[in-house]
Design goal:
Aminopeptidase; alpha+beta; 36% helix
Length: 321
Amino acid sequence: MPPAACVRLHDSVDDDEVARIATAAFPDYPLTGAELAAGARRRGARFHRKFVAEAHPGQLAGFGFIEVPDVAAAEGRLRVRVVVDPAWRGHGIGDALYQMLEADAQGRGATELCAEALESQPHSVRFAAEHGFAIYNQRVDNRLRLGGIDTGRIGRGIDMHVDRLFATGIRIATYRQLAQTTTDAPRHFHQLSCELWEDIPFGIRGAHPSFDSFVAEELDNPSFRAEGTFVALDGARWIGVCAQNSSAGCLMTWMTGVIRPWRRHGIAHWLKLHSIVYALDVGAPEIRTFNDTANRGMLALNQALGFVAIDTDLRLKKELC
């Protein structure tokens, strides 16, 4: 059994080893060391500090980090994550990592820690509860398998929305088209994202990402699919979006929303139908997305489109004394 002394701050973390452990712990979302390194470059100056546990020299048994959250950042709030290689669970490694991370966070003046745990991983849920975390929100992992999709039904749905909204002048374009025809497309996207986040029932509130951070971490992400991200327009105004990234063996819809004046007109449904057509065109076997359990409208829309709930991402927080 490796002693707690094997847990230490490591300034030159082996990204391949960290990716190996993350993939072993979350096989549905495999990572590579190159992807982790690229993510760190995009993160830029946003605070992130990692600790690792070594099983043997050069071989990690687990890792953890604290960071300023990329969503709902607030004074005194840090996000914490602990991941242990499944082969090394039950040896106290997670506890040793967490103790160091919490102490470091408190030393930096943190007053609140946020974390996540999948409902399908009861060991993670127990670990969080044992360390004083409570659930503040739940997000459903919804997935749409595309093998049995009725393409005719999708096409008819798009045509129906085109006809019904024709008189309003509302149109849909890809982000790629908009970025090619206007220099302020990134700023429009950032403004729309901030406006939509105001109404997302995420459970906690905080600052929106800055424009530079949004561009670096979202639009400059190599997995971002500009041609598979669809924007609803009222004239020149951006009123809705369905944004997608490529992920391992699937597409990930990371934001779908419509601004308040244009809700309940079927625009979100129209956008989602376009995203399904794109997924079929590129041969993606599946679309994944996460929805807050309080967002009943989006959950109902996804269910109507054929999405199936696979898991629940428990959002957790702990107040520090």
